[in-house]
Amino acid sequence: MSIQTFGSPDGLAVVDLPVPAPAAGQVLVTTEAVGVGGVDTLIRSGALAAYGFKEGHIPGGEVAGTVTAVGDGVDPSWLGRRVWAFTGTGGGYAEQAVVPVEQVLLLPDGLSSAAAVTLGSAGAVAHFGLRHARFAPGETVLVRGAAGGIGIMAVQLAARGGAAAVAVTTSSPERGERLRRLGATHVLNRSGGRGDGASGRDGAHERGRAPESGGAPERDGTPAGYDVIIDVVAGADMPSFFDRLNPNGRMVAVGAVAGQPPADFGTRIMTEFRKSLSFAAFSAATVAPAALRAVRAEQFAAAARGEIAAVVHELLPLDHAVLAHRKMDAGEVFGRIVLAPRGAGAASAERRKAS
Q1: Cα gap 279→247, rounded to integer Å
Q2: Where does the chain have alpha helices with state H?
Q3: What 3-state DSSP class applies to 285?
Q4: Quick one: which of 96, 144, 215, 326 could link to 231 by a disulfide (CB 3.0–4.6 Å)?
Q5: Which domains does the chain have, with CATH numbers?
Q6: pTM for this one?
Q7: Which of 97, 78, 79, 76 is nearest to 87 (CA)?
């Protein structure tokens, strides 16, 4: 699947290309599952064209499948092994993908290809995003935009890490209940206030002010403020969430699915100078490869043991990528959509929908 025209999902189209040959240090993976990420939709829309992406680009950053060829200098024992592979900023929406061998990780027995591409990138971002925020047991955490792959993993990891409370923002009560089953303790609407989720309202925001942080908990036990905010959303509303940080609170942006925040968002921190608030952006590109591999291997093993959940929203054929992107753009996805080339064995055996 290639981006023939930037803009709507209809710009994606099937293209026939020769089977790629792995160069020295690379392997060829015959894909069984392809993860559909938020960055794929941004690239497809043209929002990242300034970073060098051009029409004709094949999106997709992670795949899982079987190694069917190796390049020079690669141990031939990789042949026939089930693996997860990081394809970078593109190349994954394909029946075969070439990947540097150092970006390939063996999959444990009991972990499906669909689960692997749901966890591989998102789990590492959530893990190191919490570390970047210096999260410690006993602290309160808010995950903004918790219904996607990164958010769901951040909820689970914060809960497993001993958070005193794990609050989430989401768009509906139904999603809130699913997040509670994954470890969330409090469900907020998209503006960060209490409410039904879908309406995006709460009393404080209807009166045009943000709930104050650092005070006593609300009557229902919802924290008045948070020590850590993991923000997957960014966008125009991001600065208002600084008001929800406790003194010495830290916000870490791990995504920007709603676009860039306002250019002057830092002024909100300076107006609360006495609270010593911190903001940081985080990208997994800054993590040492060995550390990424270790965390991914640990998370894959935990998922195979049933200790963490890989939430697959839907499994679709690879040539239904247009539909997958429409669902992403409409905000319909809870977890991750996975694409599977027609006839792919392990992934096509997955349930059509999983929770």
Answers
A1: 13
A2: 38-45, 113-132, 149-160, 173-181, 203-206, 266-271, 289-304, 321-329, 345-348
A3: helix
A4: 144
A5: 2-106+311-348 (3.90.180.10), 123-284 (3.40.50.720)
A6: 0.89
A7: 97
